[in-house]
Amino acid sequence: MSVSKSALWNSASRLATAEKWRARLAGRRNPVTDALLEYADPRPGMRVIDLACGLGEPAIPLAQRIGPKGSVTAVDQSMELLSVAAERAREKGVRNVTTQLADAHTLPFADHYFDLATCRYGVMFFRDVQRALTELRRVLKPDARACFVVWGPIEQPYWQSTVLLVQRHVGGDALEPGGDDPFRFAAPGSLAKVLRDSGFRDVEEVPRNLPWVWPGTGEEVFDYACAMSAPFRSMMERVSPEAWPAIRTEGAATIERYRVGDEIVFGADVILASGKA
To answer: For 56-85, how does the pLDDT look when each residue is reduced to its tens digit (9 = 90+)?
Structure first.
């Protein structure tokens, strides 16, 4: 693979990368989405908001779970991602998902409108987390739950075999100081604290280790990680074109150590958290 230092990490490129693997991953259960759904416990007929919905996870399976008398509003700041999410819902015959272009800090919904909120790998990227969570609490009905899943520590197989491996070669910070941090709430209690500070009650955190499975090669996993890991862009750009082949070969070999039959099987350390409005 030839890695473009100027284009790998923009949103259109990340979308293209995700779409490249769409057919390969189609029909496979996503353990993180499944864990969030189980944790959130959506009920038939609920009105749900899914923040930072991306390509439709977990908005689409949420909509399937709550049935036609319920509805899911899938919110994101990227029209490109929302368009794909809407198309995926149509392909699956799911008609109770509505997409909404919006900023989590200023939600265009009435007070006490939703019965449940979910957010999968999104809350750590909010510019002002307390403001966004306070706004989310505003649009939830009294006692409605907001449920989140975030990454645990970066020191786990997927990240160690990809971006941390690149960092060992180029040195310096893996993440740009002051930039987006996927591990912002990896420390135990950190997300719970900001939920409480935002007015949520009955707050809890639950650490989980979930399977992370890729139905292919270590080389594919490494390419996917490099293309999709936007917060690590500045580090990736420090790699010279001449150095990429050796780094990619080492990364693929490291990932292959996790092969089980026809699949790469990692364990993903995540944190589930929730609070009541």
So the answer is: 989 999 999 999 999 999 999 999 889 989
Residue ranges of domains in the chain: 11-276
Q: Spelled out in words, what is the top-level CATH class assigned to the domain 11-276?
A: alpha beta
Question: In 3D, which of 179, 158, 172, 164 has the Cα closest to residue 231?
Answer: 179
Assign 47 to helix, strand or coil: strand
CA distances 209 to 35, 119, 136, 151, 272, Å, are: 10, 18, 27, 10, 11
**Tens digit of pLDDT for each residue in 212-238?**
888 889 999 998 888 878 889 899 989
**133 has pLDDT over 80:** yes
In whole angstroms, give the CA distance from residue 192 to residue 37.
Answer: 19
Angle at 269 between CA 35 and CA 276, to 5 degrees: 50
**What's the predicted TM-score (pTM) here?**
0.90
